[in-house]
Design a protein that fits this description.
The structure is a homotrimer of 246-residue chains.
Chain A: E1 2-6, H1 14-25, E2 31-35, H2 43-53, E3 62-66, E4 78-83, E5 86-91, H3 97-102, E6 106-111, H4 123-136, E7 143-146, E8 160-166, E9 172-177, E10 185-189, E11 192-194, E12 208-212, E13 217-222, H5 227-230, E14 240-243
Parallel strand pairs in A: 1-2, 1-3, 3-5
Antiparallel strand pairs in A: 4-5, 4-6, 6-7, 8-9, 9-13, 10-11, 10-14, 12-13
Helix pairs in contact in A: 1-4
């Protein structure tokens, strides 16, 4: 099973060509579009978002993740990671670092395998997709072991006090874990602040709150409303959480 | 075969996690994204839209439908319906009522099955998806029979004289059935009105008309144009159909 | 394997119903969404875009392509094409003409097969999808051979010096082939012009350039930016390429 996590968007043929390339190698593949609107050109925000999703994936699922692969940039090697038994395939731009930091056991490889006539501009279709298909089939493309300290952006923390994603409903997802904060804390945004509520229907219509979302992250929301508009939030905005004064 | 009908949108990982949760239970599942932009927070409009689609689905297809599940609202029980041989899984918020009203034979169950550690905010992934996967596999999760009169919003009519959906092309789909109206009727919208035409190409470019769409509903359209803009239509707007004076 | 290329968009149930109709005929089908935002109502631009994608599809993939099928327009017959061994199913509105012109061996058929009770407004679901499923299964629906000179719009050239698509990142894809131009050429857009660069990271952030995209077409892009906004480009705009003066 191969799960796709990209910043390609649903527009164009990018995600479609990625899938066609996988099936070209493996007609028995099971490919699932996990998310195609990862924060665009933003492997850092994407790394925290992706890390929040992996607990809910089938155990055997391989993750093919591509966000801003920086094609043509020699510093960004194509990477395979195995973390706690799961394969990850994608660029070495930090995208897998939050998962790596939380894993009990992690290994890295540089992808040495190259297709005949690799285009410089679509590594997803021409390099990453075939490698993902091979690993999913139990085959082993040419890889070179990489020491963990050679992986880029290894200094990123396990949590990020920033907005990392605005969802379809205008909810603002942060890189903070619900397990690290206390429900009597408030989030301050300029002159305004929101308190914790367990569910959307626990507050009035149009009322803002923060909650721990279904993937375990702190999320700012408005019941039947749009938090991103109400509080003017965008990806990268810092998030200030304070203990409420009683 | 499991067909998904939700208001999750294609953005984010919501639809992707729903699918991953199904495949987590059933690797042999065949999952089809039927529609992910059902009228948001609007189970009433969605109920008429969904009812118009079921005649065109494979006989054995199970429908997993999630629109505004009102998580945390005790009045909205998780529901299984079997109508004319087809399974439906989703919230008890009226979403299946139009289908139920038109079915010859319908049964309802409350879902008693609960996963370990159910999150309050993503019943789709954690409750509805596994139940759909189990039913699709021929397994039987824990269910309690529910009397039809205990189902919410049972007073909704079989047709709705309102705009229930604006499609990608700006066509305004109504909850009125083509089989209930006559082709010499007109639809009045403020100062303007449109007549019936059988197809888009039967009227001039930029000209408005109403027709019976491919799912049997009355739809307001403009040839090579955008009816929603031309007539300022949105979901919930009333639709007035009159017999033309000859 | 059936690949879908349409202008339906991801919104609504159009693409979903297309897939449900295929699986209704063939539960063993493998259906891939290649692209659902082909240039809307624009079979000409779509024909150049589709032609750029076929080299990267699995050999056995059938292409089901539907762009502005002009339902109700008698001149637009439902068509099956076989070009260099691959099946294509869709309307006779020029959509396959660029592929045909480049193929070594091409045959055309008119689709005579009709479902019981064909709706006039959704040939995709009711006519094209079942025919694609039948051909994919190795079955033969009723077809009549068509002479190549009877196909519509046969005078379209193999390349088109126009913008044919604006992608999710704002890159402007043209109908010109990279193999036909020289990398010392410039593209003029009003008062501005861009030079060739091999990759995005070969130019500075915010800088415009043209490159040969991963499908072999000339594409106007801005590194970490939005070419369509920067140069005010839209589908159909002419593209002027000149030899640079040294």
């Amino acid at each position: 099973m191969i799960l796709l996590f990209t910043d390609y968007g649903w527009q164009g043929a990018y995600a479609g060509q990625l899938k066609a390339a996988i099936y070209n190698r493996s007609k028995s593949a099971l490919v699932i579009d996990l998310q195609h609107d990862a924060p665009i050109f933003d492997p850092r925000a994407s790394a925290y978002l992706l890390a929040s999703l992996i607990d809910f994936l089938p155990h055997e699922a391989l993750v093919l993740a591509i966000v801003d692969p920086g094609v043509g940039n020699a510093a960004r090697r194509p990477l395979v990671m195995k973390a706690d038994g799961r394969w990850y395939v994608g660029p070495d731009n930090g995208l897998f670092n939050v998962i790596a930091k939380q894993a009990e056991r992690v290994e890295f490889w540089r992808i040495d395998w190259q297709p005949a006539g690799l285009k410089k501009t679509f590594h997803g279709r021409d390099l990453f997709a075939p490698v993902a298909a091979m690993l999913d089939l139990g085959e082993r493309p040419e890889l070179s072991s990489l020491a963990a300290e050679k992986i880029g952006f290894a200094d990123w923390p396990v949590e990020l006090a920033e907005v990392i994603y605005i969802d379809n409903f205008g909810n603002a997802i942060t890189g903070l874990k619900g397990s690290s904060v206390s429900t009597d804390m408030r989030i301050h945004m300029g002159e305004r602040e929101v308190c914790f509520a367990e569910t959307f229907s626990a507050v009035g219509e149009g009322e803002g709150f923060w909650h721990i979302n279904a993937n375990g992250l702190v999320e700012i929301a408005v019941n039947q409303g749009t938090a991103a508009l109400a509080y003017n939030l965008k990806i990268g905005d810092p998030v200030y959480m304070y203990q409420s004064e009683v």
